[in-house]
Backbone:
């Protein structure tokens, strides 16, 4: 159950707001939602396009003990699967996942997940998790900034959303906070089933390194197993694939 839901017409970033609340006094399951964000962020601190009226931007404050895991990789996989299920249920549209954290539909990004851990200064373990989810619902191609237009889309790219954002938000909240959560191996199995690139040749970017490889599988720790041209198998924990 979500204990506390706040909806803002506009905010800089729901993840930033969630972080601030988490270090003060917030309960597990707190949800921050915004109609638009002026500084929505994704991985590598990239900006996440968050205009008013056409997307869902939300962040959860999660306590590791309550949610049952504290590793952001696990949380990301868990959230990506739950978001896909919620979309399928509410919209009858079947999105897939692009490793690590992108929600994809017909070869384009329609959403993303940003899980961030807040470390407890005394125990040095992760004391809180901020889980941010952004979904483009009805933004049209021409609405997106030019530089991301070729790769970005939304659930209803003609601009006519067939569902309400509230319904989708409720579906996501219920799924993320559901009491019966799968354990790690099952999460990665569900995640693997929705990955869109297994068996394909991909370009991997890791910092300054870039290489092509064949995507083989997801292992029990959520790492992407790839086969290099040399035949060597590498297990990737982070990076970006195209
Ligand atoms: C990514 O594409 O790398 C992840 C995007 C995550 C965007 C969401 S929108 C709600 C929350 N607030 C943010 O600033 N980011 C996340």
Residues:
């Amino acid at each position: 159950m979500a204990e506390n839901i706040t909806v803002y017409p506009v905010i800089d970033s729901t993840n930033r707001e969630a972080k601030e609340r988490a270090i003060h006094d917030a309960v597990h399951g707190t949800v921050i939602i915004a109609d638009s964000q002026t500084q929505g962020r994704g991985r590598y601190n990239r900006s996440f396009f968050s205009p008013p009226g056409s997307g869902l931007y939300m962040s959860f404050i999660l306590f590791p003990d309550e949610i049952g895991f504290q590793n952001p990789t696990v949380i990301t996989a868990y959230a990506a699967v739950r978001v896909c299920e919620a979309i399928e249920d509410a919209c009858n549209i079947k999105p897939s996942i692009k490793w690590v954290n992108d929600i994809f539909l017909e070869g384009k990004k329609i959403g993303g997940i940003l899980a961030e851990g807040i470390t407890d200064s005394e125990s040095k373990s992760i004391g809180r998790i901020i889980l941010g989810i952004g979904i483009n619902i009805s933004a049209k191609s021409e609405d997106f900034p030019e530089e991301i237009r070729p790769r970005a889309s939304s659930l209803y790219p003609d601009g006519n959303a067939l569902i309400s954002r509230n319904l989708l938000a409720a579906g996501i909240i219920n799924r993320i906070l559901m009491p019966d959560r799968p354990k790690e191996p099952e999460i990665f199995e569900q995640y693997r089933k929705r990955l869109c690139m297994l068996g394909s040749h991909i370009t991997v970017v890791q910092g300054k390194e870039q290489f092509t490889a064949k995507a083989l599988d997801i292992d029990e720790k959520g790492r992407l197993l790839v086969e290099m041209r040399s035949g060597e198998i590498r297990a990737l924990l982070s990076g970006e694939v195209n």
